[in-house]
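User: I'm putting together a small comparison set for a docking exercise, and I want a reference complex before I start. The sequence is below, and the ligand is cobalt (II) ion. Could you produce the 3D structure with the ligand included, as structure tokens?
Assistant: Of course. I'll restate your input first, then give the structure tokens for the complex.
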Amino acid sequence: MNLTIVEYPDRKLKEKSKKIDKFDKELHELLDAMYPIMMQTNGIGLAAIQVSHAKQVLILNIPEEDGTQPIENLIEMINPIITSKEGEIIYQEGCLSVPSFYEDISRYENITVNFQDRNANTKTLDADGLLSVAIQHEIDHLNGILFIDKLAYSRRKKFEKEYKRMLKEKKTSN
Ligand code: QAP
Ligand code: CO
């Protein structure tokens, strides 16, 4: 499967992803293709909609203290639902679909998430810190929400201006 990252302002990113009901080869091929593209693009999280598949599928690989991302740390979540959330954490987020832009975003500090793995087994995970932030960021993608949608009006305007300038420079350097 050949995948490419969809970038803002592509309207595909606003689509709502559909629940997975078949845990078949096609799902496994999608998951297996998402991992290398996330690693090649220096990502720590990727939702299927970012590679044009409107399915409730996301992967995460939170780096260790030394910055490495062993494959053993890979988490695959299908049909995730946050069942409890509390506290606040502010983290400087980025997104593979919004390259070169980072902003502080407020999220829940502690969450519990229910999901299925690639074989349809039900799992529960308690998360805090960066993992909690990453799960919330990726679940937002499944609902068509980007981290820039959470910015206050003036910061969003500043973003639009900077981002348009960057896209223009990208074009003229081609
Ligand atoms: C979402 O984000 C996230 O702009 C995953 O040039 C973000 O992997 C979770 C990336 C923050 C938790 C905290 C962004 C790579 C990667 C860029 C990413 C870029 C290259 C973003
Ligand atoms: Co993202």
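The domain at 11-173 is CATH 3.90.45.10 (Peptide Deformylase). The helical segments are 25-40, 129-142, 153-172.
User: Thanks, that's exactly what I needed.
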